[in-house]
Write a structure and sequence with these properties.
Elements: H1 6-26, H2 28-63
Keywords: Membrane, Transmembrane, Transmembrane helix
């Protein structure tokens, strides 16, 4: 901004809000899928941690 004043700053803020809301509305369907994808990733990570812990226990038993 070359010469910022309250009017230009306000115009920039309003433009950003309009753009942000329109982006959210345009991607509403894919945004609804995000929580399910996060839950699936958490479930997968939990399974991998369980597998790794089991291998760690098995390895510790074989050393003893």
């Amino acid at each position: 901004m070359v010469a910022p004043n309250p009017i230009t700053v306000g115009a920039v803020v309003v433009t950003g809000l309009v753009y942000g809301v329109s982006s959210i509305m345009a991607n509403k369907k894919s945004l609804r899928e995000i929580p399910g994808k996060i839950a699936d990733a958490g479930h997968w990570a939990g399974e991998k941690l369980e597998e790794g812990a089991g291998k760690l226990v098995d390895g510790a038993k074989s050393v003893h």
